User: Fold these one by one.
Assistant:
Number 1:
Amino acid sequence: MNSKLLILFSIPFVFVACNQSSDESSPEAMADTKNSAQYDRLLAEQRHLFEALPLKADNPENETTNDKIKLGHALYFDTRLSLTGNNSCNGCHNLDSYGVDNLPTSPGDAGGNGDRNSPTTLNAALHGSQFWDGRMKDVEEQAGGPVLNPVEMNMPSEQEVEKRLSNVDMYRVLFAKAYPEETNPVTYTNMRNAIGVFERQLLTPSRVDEYLLGDKSALSLQEKKGMLSFAYIGCTNCHSGSVLGGNQLQRFGVHKPYWEATASEHVDRGLFEQTNDSLDLYLFKVPSLRNISETHPYFHDGSVQDLEEAVRIMAEVQLDYKMNQKEVKNVVAFLEALTGEVPPKYKQNPLAIAE
């Protein structure tokens, strides 16, 4: 048996039925309190696997200013960054729905869909790389990719983007304020850097952060059980740190072909599609698990709608472990506690407000 599982099953856990009474002095409530404290002690031993979300996600190579945030906010919502005006960044990464569109794959400007699921932009600035194959280093570089992608926003060139933006009075003013030292500030590089600065504001602290920062009452007993199972089963081998993922590429389907478990219609070979190197077969960026209960469907192809099913699949194909129903429920409860909130001011479309 896997050594992690031996550890899991040898811990003397005391599972207590949920108390239906509101009387906090009842024997059941007192037992839950004692049991919760036991989990706090066990979780303290796993504390090194988890990090609270930082307050900022600044890039020293792209200084954050209020004027850049304002410009990036407008650009993020502007459909004029797509050839025929059908798409904006917010179209696929909707801030009203946790930075995604909840579709398996997203329609582009010309009507066709991409071949991979649109990941959330929330907390993406804390990832070590961008896109499912990790081919771009940060949100600034990533912001320029979809605009020129013929399947996505379909603009023909950087020069055409600059020309279009230069013809808008509002943007001539916003770019000049954001980049006051430049004679011709309306550039493609400045556009993607401004969007990057805006995306760096999209951090969503959750109750898990409150717990990690010392508030032991922030999580329920079930959520603590799930957090501990998450660590003991081995999920933290890939999903650790402040965003529980986002910082490495891993082979999807360690113990069995992933498509057999996900019933994927198309077998995506991951990073191999970029490099043609057999060592990169089925390598995908490990996604962040923050807000995961809201960012369905799951996996690189959006092939699984249900979070419980996604958890079972990951345990099976990555860890060769079959989770029981109680474990699944507890882990999902923990994952749901990772849900935060987008700052309301950033969910508003500034272009609509201006009009």
Number 2:
Amino acid sequence: MKSIVFYISDHGFGHASRSLALIENIIHIDKEVKIFIKTGEKQLEFCRAYLSKLNFDDIYYEIKKNDVGLILEKNSLKVDKKKLKYEVENWINNWDYYIYQEEYFYKENKIDLIISDITPQAFIIGKKLGIRTLAISNFTWYEMYVDLLGSISAIEKLYEAYDLADEVFIYPLSEPKNLLFKKYKNIGFVARKSNRWLVQKIREKYLGDLYKRIIFISVGRSVNLEEEIHIKNDDNFYIYTEGLNLKGENTYRLSINTINIQDYIAASDLLITKAGWSSVSEAVVSQVPLLVIDRQEVIEDRTTINKLLELGIADIIDDSTLFNLGNVNFDEFIGRLKKPYFVNPFKNDSYNIAKEILKFIK
């Protein structure tokens, strides 16, 4: 039996969501594969809950603090650069102990492939132990931190770690020339598959005589905006996730334990979101128009937003618009942003990418 280790970023749940789409398809294709998942505690709970439906015994979970991600100012989408700088330097300076601990795991388990989205230490481990590694992402923490923090101590360790990756898959909506990888393969969109029956049930539940459209709003679980957003009782129904505080009769907050966000996105007429890649991807493969919160401070967001604008399937809004949604003409946005999908209906390529991954261990 072949074995694959997934190192998944602890930042938010987007990295976990897209990794789950790949893991689910890998298992569907080849039942004779063992999967190890290493990520943060909350992300691991999410992975375990989502994959439990597969009734597959050879998935093993380990809580692992893999990275720092971004640290935001309270009640804001703005990065707290002072705190981030301190945490990033401390994180990088403790890699030796992280790698030392991981070596014990590899002594006890024969691993054929290490996949990282996008934990840099994984590539050091792979090179040291002679195990093939695959980087898969739309960005790395190296260009993220250089762009935000400039030159900080130990930053070159990040560059050197990523440079050790044997194989590199780059997701759409990225700018490969801005990444440090010299050799890479461009791949398609990855998203958890939506359930058509559930999508229809969601629309039947919330739409009818009173409400004509579902507006889904999410800022990701790495964000917490405490300020109340008052929604007028119009003909839209607003479904939103953790990190937001909507008030109105025509609103519904999904439970933190909801594991099928992709079904709610697919059931929506419009997604309002920050430019998190996984939420965007789940909207794109379901042909859902997007209003994206303009966060130019973060290079990943800038790049994703620019690519979406080029495709014509998204428009941008600022923070003030998010807190004044009653003044937004959603019909105008939906009508205009839906049109490009008729010409280019983007597909979910998770299955084909999973097949490509399995070729590395044949």
Number 3:
Amino acid sequence: MEQPHLKIGLACCVGIAACSLILLTGPEPLEESLPEEKPRVSIGKFVRIVVANTVTAFGVLSPRQSLQLTTQVPGEIAWVSDDLEAGGQVAEGDLLLRIDERDYAIAVAGAEARYAQAEANIDIEEGRSEIARLEWAAWQENLDEDLPANPLALRAPQRAEAVARRKAIGAELDSARLTLERTAVHAPWPATVVHANAIVGQVLSVGEVTATLFPLDYAVVELQVPLKTVRLLDAGIDRIELRPVHDLKTPPVVGTFEGIVRNLTDDTRLATVRVRIDEPLGHEGWAYGMHLEARLVAEQKRAVALIPADLIVSGNLIWVYRDGRAQRHQLYPVEIQGQTVSVEDNFGAGDALIVERPIGLFDGARVDVAEM
């Protein structure tokens, strides 16, 4: 029983001796020391400018209207223009198709003959009326009396009937000529053909669609803009620049402001800004249905600061030198142009931009500065 106790006692003595040796011969403990010098940062001046308020929005190039080309008279298609096909372009007044006009030409000829007959009947009645007046005068002379003439005796009703008959036939003739004219279908304005379904020999009924036309003179883009953003445009719009979304580096096309539709629906809480674009298909690569980016430049101005993009850290923050300290500052971007970001100028008069800083700098630390 004594041997185990002896072993334990020896082990404890050896451990105590080893610890004492380490404490006596070990290195001196490190003492906490704070750096005597403050961190050094490099600063630069803010570039401040005044720019116009801008609003960026997106929309789709749409025709100002869409025409379903139909016929007003039935019949067989006798001729179709080569331009009346999808992708074709037509000028105002161009003949697009013609319906067989023979039946309508016959109707016009018949109406013209009836009209000529009605005119002849009027001439006949005028002759009869003249004879009746002469007979009435001779009868009065024989009786030596001056009695008023009876309109019926002078054939006045018969002449009035002939004149009314000519008027009715004249209306029929006008209708027949108009119907004949409608066998030729013309373009109402310069247009591009989106869809065509007109074939020679095809028999059409009244109102049947033969093509779909979009106008070439101008198109519209409806931009959806939040009401809060629309307020930036209340002072007026200086210009509107539009670019295709797929090629934002192309030179902009200038649009014309048409109006703001401040009508909110259950589907959207956005206002609609309508922009007009003259001769949209005259711009290279443009087509109806394409998506556009619009930059609306307002007449109202605002102060902004230009910040290099590489100085912005996560959360739209930058480091500024303010009252002897390095502080992180919240940015509110306005526009990005290449490697420069325009932000709202919410900086103090004595603030400076920190362009170089040591790693590990904490917010609010006192720093020394070096001008750049």
